């Protein structure tokens, strides 16, 4: 039987050259776009726990990030746009991030 050799993930593998290492959102500070992108990378890394698992879809990760951001905005009593529009904005932010990442 053939055994699969899994490469261990290190901090350097998950570190982004643009935003740095992925991290969770803080509960007591409103997130910036950079914080939202770090959280997006954090959620994507959490959803892909197994090395052989497929990459989670952009829509799936964007839904989770949008829900968390809306909870923080609601906690701060900030009026928000609809959930669908928040997800679209996060997808647009991810698209811009991928375009920036191309030279790296």
Query: Shape from CA axes?
Result: globular
Quantity of strands, as a count? 0
What's the N-to-C terminus distance? Answer: 38 Å
Give helix % range: 40-55%
Describe this structure in words.
The structure is a single chain. By secondary structure, the protein is mainly α. The protein contains four helices and no strands. The longest helix has 19 residues, at 83-101. Helices cover 54% and strands 0% of the residues. It has one domain.
Give a summary of the structure in a few sentences.
By secondary structure, the chain is mostly helical. It has helices at 11-14, 33-47, 58-75, 83-101.
Features:
single chain; 104 residues; mainly alpha; 4 helices; globular
List the helices and strands and how they pair.
Elements: H1 11-14, H2 33-47, H3 58-75, H4 83-101
Helix pairs in contact: 2-3, 2-4, 3-4
């Amino acid at each position: 039987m053939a055994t699969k050799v899994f490469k261990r993930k290190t901090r350097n593998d998950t570190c982004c050259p643009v935003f740095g290492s992925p991290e969770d959102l803080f509960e007591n500070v409103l997130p910036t776009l950079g914080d939202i992108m770090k959280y997006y990378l954090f959620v994507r890394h959490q959803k892909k726990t197994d090395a052989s698992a497929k990459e989670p879809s952009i829509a799936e990760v964007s839904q989770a990030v949008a829900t968390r951001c809306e909870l923080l905005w609601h906690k701060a009593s900030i009026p928000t746009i609809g959930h669908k529009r928040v997800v679209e904005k996060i997808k647009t932010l991810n698209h811009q991030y991928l375009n920036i990442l191309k030279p790296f």
